[in-house]
Amino acid sequence: MKYTGPTFRPPLEANTLLLQVTVGCAHNKCSFCTMYKETKFQIESLEQIEKDLREAKEKRPSIDRIFLVNGDAFVLSARRLKEISDKIIEVYPDIKTITMYGAVRNIKDKTDEDLEMLRKARINELWVGIESGHKETVTYLNKGHDLNDAYVQLERLSTFDIAFNGIFMLGIAGHNKGLENAQATAQLINKTKPKLVGFTSLGIFKGSKLEKDYLSGDFSPATEYEILQEEKHLLNHITIEVPFYGTHPTNAANVKGILPKDRDNMLLEIDETIKIVDEDFLNASANRYSL
Q: Which residue(s) pair with 244 in the sheet?
């Protein structure tokens, strides 16, 4: 199997076959991200993709799920994605789900006809890095979409029965804005109804625009206590039934469950974390080294 440069996948896809269809990230301009800064974006050839599929088939004769890497594979045209799905189905005729990272801007680029075609081609789930439902924060993140785009495009996915897993970030709005961010993000989640939600915590990485703004004083990070309070506020204001994963290694507390039935247990876990963690840690912003 061919993998070029850093390869990332959601933690919940740990046992999923990874198939490289792009290298790096076509956007590569998010203010907080340095994942692909040193990697030139490329589109993998269909010949190499088929070769990797044949190799995978020898080692894993039967799979029902495959994850297309890298950073924003859904940037590919609907035509190219259909060609890739055709190859996958040829090798794995019983495949049920072809998934990948997809950005809101990538969804916007697809016509209704494109989305309908892709759903029929078993591209029926996306991992969407939304990060926030807070208008000001979304603009600052420079992800290539505004808040209205997020509402419109995520609802378009639902129209064509393409599920999405929402990826969000705690602390992303900065100092004293966590509860405001949580309220707006919960509103977005309640309206667009993701299949699941996953939360990481903001890190300030060397070489990012966020780091420059932090060093200049233009961005003030939230403390760990603020981040935990933001997470509690989210749990209290998400009203739909949805699996909640706050288990990323960047998070101070490890919480997961299904809302609303597991809400109290998750809130208790956060409160217990606050009780046992050192006060100096809670009142500072921790260094984080990966997304």
A: 197, 257
Q: Of 199, 100, 118, 130, whose CA–CA distance to 157 is shortest?
A: 118
Residue 23: φ, ψ to 5°: -120, 135
Q: Are the CB atoms for 89 and 57 separated by under 8 Å?
A: no
Q: Using the predicted structure, report yes or no on whether residue 95 has a pLDDT greater than 90.
A: yes
What is the structure's pLDDT at 118?
98
Mind spelling out the 3-state secondary structure of the chain? CCCCCCCCCCHHHCCCEEEECEECCCCCCCCCCCCCCCCCCEECCHHHHHHHHHHHHHHCCCCCEEEEECCCHHHCCHHHHHHHHHHHHHHCCCCCEEEEEECHHHHHCCCHHHHHHHHHCCCCEEEEEEECCCHHHHHHHCCCCCHHHHHHHHHHHHHCCCEEEEEEEECCCCCCCHHHHHHHHHHHHHHHCCCEEEEEECCCCCCCHHHHHHHHCCCCCCCHHHHHHHHHHHHHHCCCCEEEEECCCCCCCCEEEEECCCHHHHHHHHHHHHHHCCHHHHCCCCCCCCC
- Judged against a pLDDT cut of 70, whether residue 289 lies above it is answered with no
d(CA 105, CA 27): 10
Q: pTM score > 0.90 for this model?
A: yes
Give residue 108's identity as a one-letter amino acid code: K
Structure tokens at 266: 């998750």
In this structure, what is the dihedral angle of CA atoms 89, 242, 151, 143, given to the nearest 10 degrees? -70
The Cα–Cα gap between 290 and 177 comes to: 23
